[in-house]
Inverse folding.
């Protein structure tokens, strides 16, 4: 019979025939595009045959064939699975395609179809007669097969359908279920049945149904299941043998019996249910045989129905362990695909899944987002999904994971794509789950997939384990007990701790004490982890000290002792961890907890640190809205989203947190996260065949040898895929990620090879890149950004040395600013270094601080300079090229858009660059082009889509919610909130278990059983009655709660408890404990509420206040205090602008910060805050309040807590005003709390101050201050008639001074100085509270000496403990006589407190520069303090002497100033004044005295000299002599000079001060001596040299006669 074989090449999109090839049986050939010629060629043929012609070619050419009069069509595609079902398959076949080395050659493909067809005839003729009859009977009337049987002339030897059924049963008696409904299959699905029988007939374990069959005939999977994988009810020979789980257990694992739990055969029941195709939920304890429970049905299904079981687990390391353990048992049918595999391992795993040699596939939930994973799962018969750690579905579980909620959606989508009529069954496993969790898991699968899960649950406790809890006071007590237990038991022991550092230190200490111990935790090097684990399992080491990461999948049966050094964070985890003891049920093992209540608080703190709050999800949603302003779909990495959200990049697991937030938003319908789909394709093949392509590759000089090998493999794969691709599916197979996965080549290497193939015109250039060019008013904004970055890079390169260096980020930023880089920010510097690290230009070791960057160059600076220059030249060209090109794409719709999309390719840019003349060598390569593009993407000069960026882990996100005003709400957060609330309860519950175990063993075991078995609400009602349920809802233990809040007053507690008000104003009177309240509020925000440490900001007005808050907070919450940002206004602004703070630069710093915040030039992570606390809010000026407003604008939901007392606003002279505090009440509707209980002062002092304050108008507080102390102190008011009050005041201080601290307050600096001098002259100690106005503390002689004694080389960046202590010792020794020593030592102490771990040299310098002298006075009772009222604000003293000699209050500010002075007194108040403004203040227990005596001006007065009072240039010649002087040393005055003890004139007065001297002379005062107040370093601008200068106090005495006044 005449038959013609043909193939066509068709444009899929247009339907146009591009080429036709045909060959006849006699060898005649046809190759043309003309259909008329094809019709003529077919004349006389009865049959046409081809591969995949029924669904493809005939659509386009059937009319021509009909015109030729050919009646019959044969398609080799449908015959192939029937006749070549066994692996290895026919050499010409690859799934639905013909294997060929040619591309677009229909004549060659016609010949291959001919060869395949005759092979198929031969294969059919070689079949057993029964099988021929079965296939013929099933397929003779189908379109796909009828012509084939007619062609070969096969006759029907059967008479009825019953005979077919009998024949099938007879032929396949031992291979299919005897009770399968063959009649229905024969009638309804004959093709599917035939394919199944053909595969079964092979008896080949690893032969599978081709993917195209599964896609075209999805019922195949169901029929195979019913024939081979579903036990029949009545039993049959096949089912009794092949589906017998006991025989399977023996066959695969060598066990005779299944494991029982407390006598119950739960494992056997669960396996049986799975084999019966039921969906199950198994709650089996650790070591309970969970793995075998799903592995056995999986292996049986694999053998019987060639099915694949997909195991989803969150633990990548555990997947590999499971695969390895199966291989140790001789079972090689399992693979894993996860991030820990290298490309070759990954490709091998994918190959084994695709070719059928794997029956079990382990993947993570995140893998379900991969297009490759979806593709391979569509290619296999999926018989079951197994979900490990299934408690992760439930918000009531101990480890809820939002990404688990995607699993059901994925399975549903997969079923739809496979056209399955029935749901794929699931098996869920968990080691521990209470009833609520079990119900949640069941409800999830019922709702998502309409599956009913049968539950199999075991008891939580085991009979061969003995439990014991010891209450331990401290860590040392714990350790001693641990050591005793290990010594006593002498058996394999697991010690559990809660922190990675503890695991390491405890293992080290045990080893030092003679025990062989190893550590194990998640952050260890993988090799060390495996080594330590193996040593423990083999018995080489008896003790492993581990976090909860240890033990999963570890099978060690002889562990006799499990000790929890730190208690677990839930009963679920404890039972699981304790259950790793005594897996050999013949031994009795012991489980101990060394319990301390504080361990629970550590869990609460950790929970709060890891918790994803609603605010953080809102921040991510805001970031997504910003990223999708122009287009609804974006491709962004988790880190990019985190930066846009303003998150601190140093936060642990930041990318995981972003992914969870994205999942939460997806779950609530705000967005859709797509599959991870790179957008670069290796299609458009230009070579005609493989040989031509390979010849071109070999002839090219551009390929290195590895690239040549890769390119050859890639082109062979592409041609094989493309040659017979008769749909649009080729795009998927040509994707770079798919090629990488299939061939096991790293993505970057695939991209390199594809690019070179394009350069050699083996592949067509394909515009797979697009970029958004940034334009503004037709200006090239992208170019401006790039040039700005280039300037900064050049500066950074200029300071880079050929060795490792550590930089303070602010100092770097300041240096760049000084060098002319106006646009520099710390963010830009970090971005540049990140890019340099990625490109391997520099190395950067891990740093624990975000303030420092440590780098060491990989190349020498000269080579780096060349790389930088070339990349900058390329970048400039590319931006200008694309900018020009953007105008080609401009239309009416986008003419005014700031971003224009431009499409291009790497090759296009390369050729364009090489065609222009530049000052540099204009030859380049694609690597350099891609580097430049990547650089511009990193700096945001271009927004690149697709292309080489596939090598970076981006997420495809589509925004679904169009309303930009819509916010993520509390209802959306409900599930996560429920999980976190439950986690809090779980910590309390495990603590309750420990307490019960201490007192009543039996009761504790019952407690555990009830927890897992009872309805959860009933359990809580039984064990936590009444107020205790409220107690366990707090994320703090009762003891800690009492410590934090037990001693606060009701008014203070109201402020702590308010977690609803967005704005709070605390009007806090003097002595009302506002510092304490704020410290406790910060602790409460950290511990009790959803506020992350890094998202809290407190601003104060002094470094001393910041340090005080930090110290108090440390006492309350421990190390967590170090992560809460507490700064002065100026220091915070210096930080966010990346500048080193100095007094000289502080003038405009707040205003500059506001401008930068509002223009978007500040690092988002520095200004994204959830809570802002303002201390002394009444002192804000306009700039500081604008800063608060700017932060509120950036964080619309930010809570603001402002604490202040408008009665103490005494800085109006510098612009501060309480109106800004009031505006929070008036304009923001702040909740106002009054703190009016005065804990500081005695009753009559409070009453006196209240009465005086009544003169102040317009006050926020409505309630008078209430004294807490009942007793009265001394109040004495002395009124004078003259203004010279210094002498009587000092007399009063020295005669009436009471015990305790004493301070004299004045309204002027001069008076304070005179009083100090007179007290000292009388032989008493006095200390003047002064500031360092005019110079920076960094320049103080004592500080410079200390820094020099640290003896740090230029390339040393941290200060060792030894160096620090030695420098401090020398400072104290060598400057023992200095009057500044105490303050300097206090500076160092504060720095130690703020930096308890690592002390960075640059941090110390910044700390000193940003500090004020008056921040560091220590209060003691030995000296009388003397201060102005303004400097004393915020301080308190037992005794206060107030002198107001020339002060007449007229304004509210004047009255507030006096009020501040009055309220500094705790016990006694003495007032010396010469007015009448206290006359109206009449209370009991007050003494008023009028002193009529007339006092003369003091005999001695003093003046403090500043920079203008001394001749600065004069000091240059006397540096040696000045270096021998100390603060506090006396100098003699001779004319216009001051001399040291050796008569050297070390100081000369300025002309200005000489004029002042003349004025003093007129008043009859002559200078008698000088005392050095400060020695500071001053930089001479002319010589650019630093020199020491002296700032003295000059003491004058009144002249007795005219002669004395001569100078």
């Amino acid at each position: 019979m005449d038959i013609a074989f043909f193939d066509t090449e068709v444009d899929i999109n247009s339907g146009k025939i591009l080429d036709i090839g045909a060959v006849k049986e006699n060898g005649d050939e046809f190759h043309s595009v003309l259909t008329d010629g094809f019709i003529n060629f077919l004349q006389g043929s009865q049959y046409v045959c081809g591969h995949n012609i029924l669904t493809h070619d005939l659509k386009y050419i059937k009319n021509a064939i009909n015109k030729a009069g050919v009646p019959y069509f044969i398609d080799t595609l449908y015959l192939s699975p029937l006749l070549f079902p066994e692996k290895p398959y026919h050499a010409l076949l690859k799934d639905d395609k013909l294997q060929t080395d040619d591309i677009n050659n229909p004549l060659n493909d016609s010949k291959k179809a001919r060869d395949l067809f005759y092979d198929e005839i031969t294969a059919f003729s070689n079949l057993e007669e029964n099988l021929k009859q079965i296939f013929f009977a099933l397929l003779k009337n189908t379109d796909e097969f009828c012509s084939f049987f007619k062609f070969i002339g096969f006759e029907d030897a059967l008479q009825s359908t019953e005979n077919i059924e009998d024949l099938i049963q007879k032929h396949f008696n031992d291979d299919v279920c005897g009770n399968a409904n063959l009649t229905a299959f024969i009638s309804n699905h004959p093709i599917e049945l035939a394919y199944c029988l053909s595969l079964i007939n092979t008896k080949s374990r690893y032969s599978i149904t081709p993917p195209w069959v599964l896609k075209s005939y999805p019922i195949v999977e169901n029929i195979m299941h019913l024939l081979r994988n579903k036990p029949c009810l009545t039993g049959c020979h096949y089912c009794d043998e092949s589906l017998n789980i006991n025989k399977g257990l023996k066959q695969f694992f060598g066990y005779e019996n299944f494991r029982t739990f407390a006598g119950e055969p739960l494992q056997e029941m669960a396996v049986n249910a799975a084999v019966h195709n039921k969906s199950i939920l198994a709650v089996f304890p650790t070591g309970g045989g969970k793995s075998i429970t799903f592995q056995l049905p999986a292996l049986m299904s694999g053998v019987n129905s060639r099915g694949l079981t997909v195991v989803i687990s969150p633990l990548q390391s555990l997947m590999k362990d499971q695969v390895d353990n199966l291989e140790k048992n001789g079972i090689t049918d399992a693979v894993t695909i996860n991030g820990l595999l290298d490309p070759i391992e990954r490709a091998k795993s994918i190959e084994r899944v695709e070719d059928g040699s794997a029956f079990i596939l382990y993947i993570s939930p995140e893998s379900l987002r991969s297009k490759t994973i979806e593709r391979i799962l569509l290619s296999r018969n999926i018989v079951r999904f197994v979900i490990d750690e299934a408690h992760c579905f439930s918000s009531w579980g101990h480890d809820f994971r939002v990404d688990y909620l995607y699993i059901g959606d994925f399975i549903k989508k997969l079923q739809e794509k496979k056209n399955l009529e029935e749901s794929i069954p699931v098996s869920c496993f968990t080691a521990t789950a209470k009833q609520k969790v079990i119900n949640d898991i069941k409800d999830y699968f019922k709702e998502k997939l309409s599956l009913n899960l049968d539950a199999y649950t075991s008891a939580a406790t085991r009979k061969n384990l003995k439990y014991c809890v010891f209450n331990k006071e401290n860590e040392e007590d714990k350790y001693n007990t641990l050591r005793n237990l290990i010594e006593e038991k002498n058996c394999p022991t697991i010690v559990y701790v809660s922190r990675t550092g503890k695991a390491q230190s405890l293992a080290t200490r045990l080893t030092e004490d003679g025990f062989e111990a190893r550590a194990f935790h998640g952050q260890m090097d993988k090799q060390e982890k495996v080594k330590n684990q193996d040593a423990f399992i083999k018995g080489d080491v008896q003790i492993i000290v581990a976090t909860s990461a240890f033990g999963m999948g570890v099978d060690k049966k002889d562990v006799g002792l499990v000790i929890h050094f730190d208690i677990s964070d839930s009963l679920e985890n404890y039972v699981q961890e304790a259950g790793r003891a005594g897996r050999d049920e013949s031994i009795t093992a012991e489980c101990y907890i060394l319990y301390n209540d504080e361990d629970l608080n550590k869990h609460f703190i950790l929970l709060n640190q890891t918790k994803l709050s609603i605010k953080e999800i809102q921040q991510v949603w805001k970031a997504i809205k910003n990223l999708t302003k122009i287009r609804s779909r974006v491709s962004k990495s988790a880190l990019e989203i985190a930066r846009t959200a303003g998150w601190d990049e140093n936060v642990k697991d930041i990318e995981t947190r972003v992914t969870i937030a994205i999942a939460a938003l997806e779950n609530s319908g705000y967005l859709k996260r797509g599959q991870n789909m790179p957008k670069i394709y290796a299609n458009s093949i230009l070579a005609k065949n493989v040989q031509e392509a390979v010849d071109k590759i070999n002839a090219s000089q551009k390929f290195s040898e590895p690239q040549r090998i890769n390119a050859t493999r890639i082109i062979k794969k592409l041609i094989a895929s493309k040659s017979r691709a008769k749909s649009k599916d080729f795009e998927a197979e040509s994707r770079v990620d798919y090629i990488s996965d299939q061939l096991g080549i790293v993505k970057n290497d695939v991209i390199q090879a594809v690019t070179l193939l394009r350069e050699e015109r083996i592949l067509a250039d394909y515009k797979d890149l697009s970029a958004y060019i940034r334009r503004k008013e037709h200006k090239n904004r992208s170019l401006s950004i790039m040039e700005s970055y280039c300037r900064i890079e050049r500066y950074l390169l200029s300071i880079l040395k050929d060795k490792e260096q550590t930089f303070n980020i602010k100092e770097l930023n300041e240096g760049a600013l000084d060098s002319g880089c106006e646009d520099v920010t710390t963010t830009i510097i970090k971005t540049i270094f990140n890019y340099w690290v990625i490109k391997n230009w520099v190395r950067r070791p891990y740093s624990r601080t975000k303030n420092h960057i440590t780098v060491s160059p990989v190349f020498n600076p000269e080579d780096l300079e060349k790389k930088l220059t070339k990349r900058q030249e390329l970048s400039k060209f590319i931006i200008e090229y694309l900018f020009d090109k953007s105008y080609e794409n401009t239309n009416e719709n986008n003419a005014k858009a700031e971003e224009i999309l431009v499409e291009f390719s790497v090759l296009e840019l390369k050729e364009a660059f090489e065609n222009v003349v530049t000052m540099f060598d204009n030859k380049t390569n694609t690597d350099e082009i891609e580097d430049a593009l990547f650089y511009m993407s990193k700096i945001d000069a271009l927004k690149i889509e697709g292309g080489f960026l596939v090598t970076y882990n981006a997420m495809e996100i589509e925004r679904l919610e169009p309303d930009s005003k819509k916010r993520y709400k509390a209802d959306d957060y409900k599930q996560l909130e429920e999980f976190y609330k439950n986690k809090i309860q779980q910590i309390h519950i495990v603590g309750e278990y420990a307490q019960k175990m201490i007192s009543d063993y039996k009761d504790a075991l019952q407690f555990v059983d009830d927890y897992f078995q009872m309805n959860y609400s009933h359990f809580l009602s039984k064990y936590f009655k009444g107020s205790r349920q409220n107690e366990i809802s707090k994320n703090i233990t009762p003891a800690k709660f009492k410590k934090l809040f037990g001693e606060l007053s009701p008014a203070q507690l109201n402020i702590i408890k308010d977690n609803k008000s967005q704005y709070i104003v605390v009007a806090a009177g003097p002595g009302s404990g506002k510092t304490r309240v704020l410290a406790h509020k910060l602790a409460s925000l950290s511990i009790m509420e959803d506020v992350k440490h890094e998202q809290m900001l407190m601003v104060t007005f002094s470094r001393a206040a910041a340090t005080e808050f930090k110290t108090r907070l440390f006492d309350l919450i421990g190390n967590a205090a170090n992560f809460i940002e507490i700064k002065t206004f100026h220091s915070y602004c210096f930080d966010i602008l990346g500048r080193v703070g100095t007094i000289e630069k502080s003038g405009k710093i707040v205003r500059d910060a506001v401008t930068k915040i509002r223009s978007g030039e500040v690092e988002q992570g520095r200004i994204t805050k959830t809570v802002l606390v303002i201390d002394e809010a009444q002192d804000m000026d306009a700039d500081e309040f604008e800063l608060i407003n700017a932060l509120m604008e950036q964080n619309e939901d930010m809570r603001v807590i402002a604490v202040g007392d408008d009665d103490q606003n005494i800085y109006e002279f510098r612009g501060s005003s309480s109106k800004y505090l009031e505006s929070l009440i008036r304009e923001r509707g702040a909740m106002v709390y009054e703190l009016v209980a005065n804990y500081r002062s005695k009753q009559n002092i409070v009453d006196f101050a209240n009465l005086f304050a009544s003169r102040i108008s317009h006050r926020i507080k409505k309630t008078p201050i209430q004294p807490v102390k009942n007793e009265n102190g001394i109040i004495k008011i002395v009124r004078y008639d003259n203004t010279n009050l210094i002498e009587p005041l000092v007399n009063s201080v020295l005669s009436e001074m009471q015990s305790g601290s004493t301070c004299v307050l004045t309204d002027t600096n001069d008076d304070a100085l005179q009083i100090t001098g007179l007290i000292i002259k009388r032989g008493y100690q006095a200390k003047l509270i002064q500031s360092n106005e005019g110079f920076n503390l960094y320049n103080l002689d004592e500080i410079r000496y200390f820094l020099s004694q640290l003896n740090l080389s230029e390339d040393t960046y941290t200060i060792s403990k030894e160096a620090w202590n030695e420098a401090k010792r020398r400072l104290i020794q060598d400057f023992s006589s200095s009057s500044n020593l105490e303050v300097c030592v206090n500076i160092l102490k504060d720095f130690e407190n703020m930096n308890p771990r690592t002390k960075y040299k640059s941090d110390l310098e910044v700390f000193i520069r940003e500090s004020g002298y008056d921040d560091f006075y220590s209060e003691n009772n030995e000296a009388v303090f003397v201060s102005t009222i303004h400097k004393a604000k915020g301080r308190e003293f037992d005794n206060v002497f107030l002198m107001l000699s020339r002060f007449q209050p007229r304004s509210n500010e004047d009255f507030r100033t006096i009020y501040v002075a009055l309220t500094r007194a705790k016990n006694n108040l003495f007032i010396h004044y010469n007015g009448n403004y206290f006359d109206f203040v009449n209370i009991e227990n007050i003494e008023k005295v009028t002193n009529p005596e007339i006092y003369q001006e003091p005999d001695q007065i003093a003046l403090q000299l500043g920079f203008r009072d001394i001749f600065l240039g004069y000091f240059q010649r006397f540096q040696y002599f000045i270096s021998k002087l100390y603060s506090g040393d006396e100098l003699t005055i001779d004319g216009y000079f001051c001399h040291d003890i050796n008569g050297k004139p070390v100081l000369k007065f300025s002309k200005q001060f000489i004029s002042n001297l003349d004025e003093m002379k007129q008043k009859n005062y002559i200078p008698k001596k000088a005392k050095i107040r400060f020695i500071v370093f001053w930089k001479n601008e002319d010589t650019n040299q630093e020199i020491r200068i002296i700032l003295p106090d000059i003491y004058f005495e009144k002249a007795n006669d005219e002669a004395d006044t001569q100078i």
Summary: Residues 724-732, 947-952, 1602-1607 have pLDDT under 50 and may be disordered. The radius of gyration is 42 Å.
